[in-house]
Structure formats: C-alpha cells, structure tokens
Design goal:
189 residues; alpha+beta; seven-stranded antiparallel beta sheet; 6 helices; globular
Length: 189
C-alpha cells in the first residue's frame, strides 16, 4: 500500500516536477538550436505500477531513455516516447529513425533533458544527486520494475518550432525518496 500524502505535499511535488521540466526545456532548446516549449498539462504522483500503465498502452512498443540517479537520493528517471514521437525526435536531430545511430541520438536527448531535470531538482531541495549515463530501451516497463513505490509522472507536450511531440517523464525515487524530498521542502510527515 502506498503512503497517503496531503494535497499540499502533492502540490509541492508537482511544482518540483514542473520547474524541473522547465529546466529540461531550456537545455533541449540549446541542444537543438531551436525554440522548445514543454508544457505539463498533467502531473501526478502514482504508485509505480499505475505510473507505468499511465505512460501508455502496454501492448504498444515504447521507446524509453532511462537514467539512474545516484547520491543522497537514488532512483531512476525515464523519458517515454511513443514510436511516432521517437521518430519525430530523431528527424529533429537530422537522423533517420531507422539509422543505426538513432537510439544513440535519442539517448543524448534523454541525457540532456534528464540531467537538467535532476540538476534542477537537486538545487531546489538541496539534495545531492547525479545522473548516470543514459540507456535507450524499448522494453521500458521491465527496466522500471526495480524502482521505488511511487513515481512522479509528467505527461508533457513538447513543441519544437511548431512540431508537436508527446513525452511522458517519470521520476521514480527509490524507497524513501519522496519522503526525503518532502522533508527538504519542510513538508515531511
């Protein structure tokens, strides 16, 4: 059973996620050399199994860029893209989706976006944490199965100079990570 959080605690976690995604948007814009807007129409705190299910149809292959988090707070960050949006991201980078370097290109996007997000989060709450190198996978659900009990889920709409793309962003802190974030915000139980 997942712990119950107050609405104030959930709002604080959502705000952390929104600020982190803003930093990620700026970093991706710098990488692509194009204007990037990441809007977050929905931010949720869900048990891990529900978060993975909310990230898309289990029958549909999903491309994921997964980064580990090491330091005082440990866990996983995953960016999940449906196939058409993964292809669109490759094309934005000038790489054909079926090219042998396509997964590497997506990994670099995940590295820039995920590392920016983690760095912003660490600075906001004063927790030491760093990303590990990214891994690009197509069986994301298996790679997240070892995570903590809760995930912060951002269903994001990404627009790069008028081209739309959908990305789900999951922050999966290991056991006790959510409580650590809340305590650093002065909202511990």
């Amino acid at each position: 059973m997942s712990p119950q959080y107050t609405e104030l605690q959930l709002d604080a976690l959502r705000e952390l996620a929104n600020i982190g995604s803003g930093n990620a948007s700026t970093a991706l814009s710098g990488m692509l050399g194009r204007s990037v807007d990441i809007s977050v129409p929905e931010a949720q705190v869900l048990p891990l199994a529900e978060a993975v299910a909310a990230a898309g149809d289990a029958e549909q292959e999903t491309t994921g860029i997964v980064l580990g988090i090491v330091g005082e707070l440990t866990g996983t960050v995953a960016l999940l893209l449906p196939p058409a949006d993964a292809d669109a991201m490759c094309l934005m980078l000038g790489v054909e989706p079926d090219d042998e370097v396509a997964l590497s290109a997506l990994g670099e996007i995940g590295n820039i976006v995920g590392a920016s997000y983690i760095t912003a989060l660490a600075g906001m709450v004063g927790v030491e944490m760093e990303p590990t190198p990214p891994t690009t996978v197509t069986d994301v659900r298996a790679n997240l199965a070892h995570g903590g009990d809760l995930a912060l889920v951002l269903d994001s709409d990404l627009t790069v100079e008028g081209e739309d793309c959908s990305i789900s962003f999951l922050l999966v802190p290991d056991q006790g990570g959510v409580e650590l974030l809340l305590s650093r915000l002065g909202l511990g139980s």
